[in-house]
Amino acid sequence: MTDDDTIAQAEDPLNLSLSEAELEDRHEHLTGFIREQVEAAGTDKAVVAISGGVDSGLVAGLAADALGPERVHGLVMPSEVNADETMSDAVRVAEQFELPHDVIEVGPIIEGFLDAYPEGRQHRMAAGNVRVRTRAVLNYLVANTENGLVVGTGNRTEALIGYFTKYGDGAVDCHPIANLYKQQVRQLARHVGVPESVASRTPTAGMWVGQTDAEELGIEYDTLDSILALHVEGGVPVSATAREIGVDETVVERVRALHEHSSHKRQVPPGPAEPY
After folding, report:
1. How do residues 53-88 score in pLDDT, each as one tens digit?
2. 263 marked as part of a ligand binding site
3. According to the annotation, is 153 in a ligand binding site?
4. What's the whole-model pTM score?
5. Strand partners, 274
6. Is 175 annotated as a binding residue?
7. Where is deamido-NAD(+) annotated to bind (predicted)?
8. Confidence of residue 2 (pLDDT cuts 50, 70, 90)
9. 56 is in an annotated binding site
10. Dist CA 54 CA 202 (whole Å)
């Protein structure tokens, strides 16, 4: 985005909220999924990167409920781009769910990469992705050391538009909340007891100082959810979707483009077909 760009926001976003009965059902279903994944892999525990955001807060709570807190290892991995308040809330989440956890400062590791290839410092997105991938390496270092499974924190909204780092936060063993839109993530997070300061926090991927998801994407999450549910997944035409939620058609088309252009992120890397 440029300074002149505005953040697209629907006048009447689609309500994708879950009922109390549905929240209970989702909670049971997702905790069962985590248990099944850990048991099927023959691992002893789950490793969850806790960022101070609502997605990781929810997954931390679900993992604790699924396995017991003693079988979940939380990792808080701050760097110079993360706000102190956010990192404090990440630790608070671990303590809320009584998770064994470590705080690992990733700044010196990232500096090692950027020292090795200084040109990367001039490219904000490339340097931001190094931060995310460094955390993924540490997730697997801990998981391999402790016979653990790396449990991801990606949601449906971000997956559908490719808003994650390939081989970064997308590099995990399972995605428990992969079927939840962002507004449902917030709702279920409150249901499982994630602190309100985390559940209501402005989402950020923590890739550079001051970064927020809405400013980078140019669209609010409730609006994204609405367009994805109606147009991308529901097949409602562009014009009808725009009228239904109260946005310009160009906003719907932009979300569609994000979905299409990020398809490679949602697939196994391709190889060539056999030549015969």
Report:
1. 999 999 999 999 999 999 999 999 998 876 677 788
2. no
3. yes
4. 0.92
5. none
6. no
7. 133, 166, 173, 264-265
8. very low
9. yes
10. 9
Give the domain extent around 187.
20-212
Would you state the torsion angle of the CA atoms of residues 197, 9, 162, 131, taken in this order, to the nearest 10 degrees?
A: -40
In a domain, 10, yes or no: no
Q: What is the CATH number of the domain that holds 94?
A: 3.40.50.620
Per the annotation, does 85 bind a ligand? no
Residue pLDDT, tens place only, 168-181: 999 999 999 999 99
**Six token digits for residue 226:** 């609405």
Whether 246 is covered by a domain: the verdict is no
Q: How many domains does the chain have?
A: 1
What does DSSP say about strands 45-49 and 72-76: parallel, antiparallel, or unpaired?
parallel
From CA 83, how far away is CA 105, in angstroms rounded?
A: 13
The answer to whether residue 160 sits within a structural domain is yes
- Between 36 and 204, name the one with better pLDDT: 36
200 belongs to an annotated ligand binding site:
no
**What's the average model confidence in pLDDT over 160-170?**
95
pLDDT tens digits, residue range 84-114?
Answer: 777 889 999 999 999 999 999 999 999 999 9
In a domain? residue 192: yes
